[in-house]
Amino acid sequence: MLLSPSILSADFSALLDDIKKIEEGGADFIHVDVMDGHFVPNISFGAPVMKCLNGKTSLRYDVHLMIENPAKYIKDFVTDQTEYITVHQEACTDDLAEVLDLIKSYGIKAGVSIKPGTPTSVLEGFFNKVDLILIMSVEPGFGGQSFMEDQLYKAVELSALKREMGYDYVIEMDGGISLENIERVKEAGVEMAVAGSAVYRAEDVPERVRAFKKY
Ligand code: DX5
Ligand code: ZN
């Protein structure tokens, strides 16, 4: 399974060191959690932080925009190292198709995320237009929350649909993922796991990444 550790739980005063640790452990991406204090009740950091990291890590960015009006800010997150930009369906109820096209116009893969209360059915019509679907397994806004087991069925649904219809989106899950539940997450059909606190609260971060990568 692919692992995208979230730097939301890193030590921001030593961010590059903390990124080197996940790189050493064999992480696949850096999960970049951007929060605006409107879409979610918390503010994290923005594009300048990513730009500072450019060229200093070999890892590519998996950007998760938890912001209102994402179309206005997509361009800011375009860097040579940006692999995915994911927006929330709930923040683009009127213009999701346009926002996805905008992301792709920069040659970047486009993702869409759904909050725990949003069913996968809202994505009908978009399954062949997205490169990634991010299922939230906590209410977005904060790291370190408990995993919502009742979101696993969405991965089961999306992976069955993917098989039946030949779609090629990556199924990602984010929130509360740990070594205790990673096996169930994988069994449900998740292909890319995000982990923040479970990675960065470890005594030995590279070793924790390696432990995740066994799944
Ligand atoms: C929540 C963020 C998550 C979160 C993951 O709003 O999108 O990426 O930081 O952190 P943990 O793994 O601690 O839930
Ligand atoms: Zn996230």
Strand content: 15-25%
Q: How many E-type strands?
A: 8
Distance between the termini: 6 Å
Our count of domains comes out at 1
Looking at the structure, the CATH topology is: TIM Barrel
What overall form do the CA principal axes indicate? Answer: globular
Ranges where pLDDT stays below 50 over 5 or more residues in a row are none
- Could you state the order of secondary-structure elements as H and E? EHEHEEHEEHEHEHH
The ligands found in this model are: D-xylitol-5-phosphate, zinc ion
Trace the largest sheet across and list its strands: 1-8-7-6-5-4-3-2
- Let me know the CATH homologous superfamily: Aldolase class I
Mean pLDDT: 98
Oligomer: single chain
Total DSSP helices: 7
Q: Structural class of the helix and strand makeup?
A: alpha/beta
Largest sheet: 8 strands, parallel
* The level-1 CATH class: Alpha Beta
Helical amount among residues, as a percent range?
Answer: 25-40%
Features of the shown structure:
single chain, 215 residues, alpha/beta, TIM Barrel, 7 helices, binds D-xylitol-5-phosphate, binds zinc ion
